[in-house]
Amino acid sequence: MSALDVLSTGTGGAVGGIALGNDRRLYNFGERVAELAPQHSPFFVYLSKVAKKATDDPVFKFLEQRHQWQRRNFEVTTPVSSDVWTKGSAAPDDLVLSCGYDSSGKVAAYEQECNFILPGQVIAISDDDGGVRQVKIKSDATIATQAATSSADGYTTVPAADTIVLSDTLAAGVAVADGNKGQVVGSAWAEGSQAPDGWEDSLSNSEGYCQIFKTACNMFSGTAMATRYRGVGDEFKRTWTEKLMEHKMDLEQGFLFGIGSAGDLSDPAVDSSTRYTHGIVPYTEGNGKVYNFSYASSGYDAFLDAMEDFFALESGNSGNKLVLASRKIITYLNKLGGGSFMNNTVGASQYKLDINTIPGSFGHQVTMVNTIFGNLHFVAEPLLRGPWEDYAVCVDMKNVAYRPLVGNGNSRDTFIETNIQGNDEDGRRDQIITEAGLEISLPETHAILKFS
């Protein structure tokens, strides 16, 4: 749509028969700003169309849920000796286990206790001989837990005497080493037994911020507004078209590159009323997943290895990602020469990625890459340039939201204030305002693909 259909200069122009000229009016432009040249701001367009959710507070809090049933896996923290594992007997040593998730399911930098290890469960652990040991935890077992802190690891201990080895007898000399992996594989109870203990994880609390974006049109004197110019006759309308695009691109920039904060970044006490929205690029770099590739050598194998990790169900992923890619990466994806991504992935072998270029729903060309684990929808993001020219940002659209401030019957989604000049000034000045932020949840479902 054109900005010329929205504003008149006050010299007889009208929309729907209502002159907009000199009255002091607020015009709710809302999500229509996203429709201006959508190819220039794909992220904001997708947010506006499929992930818009109003907030009634400029500092909005939200809860993140990571489903507990997806991640009852662990590692051995203290090795089990190489004594004979005899079927029907206790394990040779205590089982000391830890996991890589905290109580809310977030991936942690240090080892965490396994609060999902309970009496009555059957657990499986890999051994050093390439086999798998299955162990039943007795129904009356006494399980001890050492909680993790920021400076110390956590772990869970199952006493050897409270276990029963279910696997076939394993000869001496084969141990279960530190770091061997395992998981809960169910539970087994006797007839008529009582209800078992339970466990639950917690929801994590996150915070986002509505940033106030403003774009003003400089003062136009009455004389300037009545003058016919070369090129575009009405300079006021021409300028307004540019300002609407400038405002939309400010939103795109903020949601891509913003550093979320409430208050002045250097001294929050100085300007506590200024808020900065989170941006998907720095937030994902700090909290999500980052994968590194090479233009020269990365192909099918490296890409698929990354996707195996990225689309892991225990991270809460959906099967589809919007990938905002720099023009440099889009070019690389579409090259057909030897050593290129297309040649490496849809070349001679039948075991390759399925790549198609399709028209998008909102005015974009989309390169769809279908992997065995999920689908990637590549869209050119023109603002990924300069320091981000080698970036592609994988966004799980189910875990992001555009949050305009709407409350008490008022909307701070994109609107236009007209005639904000002084009453005694011979001219006109307008501005565009948006107060909104980006909500990013489950950061592990988003990723940065870096090429070099």
In short:
15% of the residues lie in helices and 33% in strands. It is of the alpha+beta class.
Description:
By secondary structure, the protein is of the alpha+beta class. It has 2 domains: 3-63 and 207-451; 68-199. Helices cover 15% and strands 33% of the residues. It is built from 7 helices and 29 strands. The strands form 7 sheets. Strands 5, 6, 7, 8, 9, 10, 11, 12 and 13 form a 9-stranded antiparallel β-sheet that branches. Strands 18-29-23-19-22-21-20 form a 7-stranded mixed β-sheet, sandwiched between helices. Strands 3, 15, 24, 27 and 28 form a 5-stranded antiparallel β-sheet that branches. Strand 6 (95-101) and strand 7 form a beta hairpin. It is elongated, with a radius of gyration of 29 Å.
Tally of structural domains: 2
Number of helical runs?
Answer: 7
> Which quaternary structure do these chains form?
single chain
Number of strands: 29
Distance from N terminus to C terminus (CA atoms, Å) equals 38 Å
Average of pLDDT = 82
Poorly predicted spans: 1-25, 347-351
Judged by helices, strands and strand pairing, the structural class is alpha+beta
Q: Helical residue percent?
A: 10-25%
Work out the radius of gyration: 29 Å
Strand content: 25-35%
